[in-house]
Amino acid sequence: MRVMRAVRRGSSVAAMTRYAIEAEGLTKSYGEVRALDGVSFQVPAGTIFGLLGPNGAGKSTTVKILTTLSAPDAGSARVAGIDVLRDPAAARRALGVVGQKHAVDREATGRENLELQGRLHGLGGAELRRRAQELLERFTLADAADRLAGTYSGGMQRRLDVALGLIQRPQVLFLDEPTTGLDPEVRADMWNEIGRLAREDGLTILLTTHYLEEADKLASQLAIVDRGKVVAEGTPEQLKGELRGEAIHVELADDVAGEGTVHAALAGVDGVREVVLEGRALRARADHGARAVPSVLAALEAGGLTVASVTVARPSLDDVYLRYAGRSFGDAASDGASETETATVGSR
Ligand SMILES: Nc1ncnc2c1ncn2[C@@H]1O[C@H](COP(=O)(O)OP(=O)(O)OP(=O)(O)O)[C@@H](O)[C@H]1O
Ligand SMILES: [Mg+2]
């Protein structure tokens, strides 16, 4: 006789979905201000996703909703397969969040900060002490563990912030502008650590940033948000690839009477378009930048223009941003910013 056995499907809800974060039609207004206007995106488990956008774009509002700290007017969201609106307590166990503002208590030591945070998550005893020590070592804070956090440098406080978000071993980590205000060297260290968390610990990470360079370096997928909407989405390479061709920058030796001279000189050069002159700086786009350079130089010389220097560059995320949001980071930052910090364009 065959014994029939019921097979219990033991897979958790989280394991059944290949996305660790799903946002669907998130909408939120603060009075007259529509902070989010239908934001949707999905983040595959184990990857780093970048939400890129200027001041006031809606990045923090999105993070607050996904981490149960705020409720949307409409839309739904799942983190680690858990509906954050229906089951916020379970969602909070699966996620860690490092807010835009410091969560560190400056009047307590680094170790005390971690142990307090752990107790808030229901940890205690030897397990909590071990976890705190592990994080202090991982974030190179072990030597300063018993000093007041108020005496830490900006970079140390930010590292402690990230450690606080990790105390209960979340599957999904939200980092709201993890490196704003850090100097370049400290920022590079933080990037390495964030990369390691995804690579070695299998965490899914959503980070928000103003830094194009940061999104380009860390995120495998990114979404550009502007005025509460996702205006572009893809891998950094895909987004850059959408801007066909390369940028040619020519520095002229002398002032030019008018842009007309330059346009006339370059009119006959194949594959060169979008010619713009600002002072002595001439910018154009070409399908094959390097191949076009000799013809461009010859045409300019023939038109009586002397060239001081020429460079060819691949399109940057800044160019992508400009195209989709219709304004540069600098311009966007100055209209109706919620924070006083200025947006910064990465160096690429
Ligand atoms: N609690 C609030 N009350 C009123 N308006 C708010 C509140 N929080 C956010 N807003 C507004 O909603 C919009 C989106 O703000 P949000 O903080 O999400 O932007 P952000 O992309 O995180 O910007 P930043 O880069 O400056 O941090 C802004 O216009 C902001 O002024
Ligand atoms: Mg913000």
Report the β-strand fraction as a percent range. Answer: 25-35%
**Number of structural domains:** 2
Estimate percent helicity: 25-40%
Number of strands: 14
Strand order of the largest sheet: 6-7-8-3-9-10
Q: Calculate the mean pLDDT score and round it.
A: 86
> What structural category arises from helix and sheet content?
alpha/beta
CATH architectural type of the largest domain? 3-Layer(aba) Sandwich
First-last Cα distance: 71 Å
CA gyration radius, whole angstroms: 25 Å
Detailed description of the structure:
With 348 residues, this protein is α/β, with parallel strands linked by helices. The protein has two domains: 13-240, Rossmann fold (3-Layer(aba) Sandwich), CATH 3.40.50; 245-314, Alpha-Beta Plaits, CATH 3.30.70.100. It has 13 helices and 14 strands. It has helices at residues 13-16, 59-66, 88-94, 110-120, 125-138, 154-166, 184-201, 212-218, 236-241, 259-266, 289-302, 317-325, 329-334; strands spanning 19-30, 33-44, 48-52, 74-79, 82-83, 95-98, 172-176, 204-209, 221-226, 229-234, 246-252, 272-278, 281-286, 307-313. The strands form three sheets. The protein has a six-stranded mixed β-sheet, with helices on both faces. A four-stranded antiparallel β-sheet has the order 2-1-4-5, covered by helices on one side. It has a four-stranded antiparallel β-sheet with strand order 12-13-11-14, with helices on one face. Helix 7 links the parallel strand 7 (172-176) and strand 8. Helix 4 crosses helix 5 (125-138). The longest helix has 18 residues, at 184-201. Mean pLDDT is 86; it is low at 1-15 and 332-348. The site of adenosine-5'-triphosphate has 16 residues, from strand 2 and helix 2. It comes from Conexibacter woesei (strain DSM 14684 / CCUG 47730 / CIP 108061 / JCM 11494 / NBRC 100937 / ID131577). Residues 21-252 form the ABC transporter domain. It is found in: Cell membrane. One of its GO terms (molecular function) is ATP binding.
